[in-house]
Specification:
This protein has 97 residues and is of the alpha+beta class. Helix content is 41%, strand content 23%. The protein contains three helices and three strands. β2 and β3 form a beta hairpin. The longest helix has 21 residues. The radius of gyration is 14 Å and the shape is globular. The mean pLDDT is 93.
């Protein structure tokens, strides 16, 4: 339902991904979800470089979801930047425990 309404690259889809990961995880497990358009072509009428990254601790209510746009750069650079941002968000959420 979420995919049909918002598409694969959306805040709502990453929120659902986190929900599914946390449902399957043990207590206090870090869940990370990333969805984006790494290119080389745009997708779902969304631009290359648009990425949503979500992190959540499975047993806590706190989650963070970031919308980023790295621009129309090389595919591997978008992937690399996404991983770096996911790690930063993970450190932020862990430090809040």
């Amino acid at each position: 339902k979420t995919l049909n309404s918002y598409g694969a690259v959306s805040h709502e889809t990453v929120k659902e991904m986190l929900k599914g990961l946390c449902y399957q995880a043990e207590s206090k497990t870090l869940a990370v979800a990333i969805s984006g358009v790494a290119g080389p072509k745009r997708s779902e009428f969304k631009p290359v470089g648009l990425v949503f990254i979500g992190v959540k601790i499975s047993s806590c209510g706190t989650k963070k979801i970031a919308q980023l746009n790295f621009g129309d750069i090389e595919r591997h650079k978008i992937q690399q930047k996404s991983v770096n941002e996911a790690l930063e968000l993970s450190l932020d959420i862990i430090s809040e425990l």
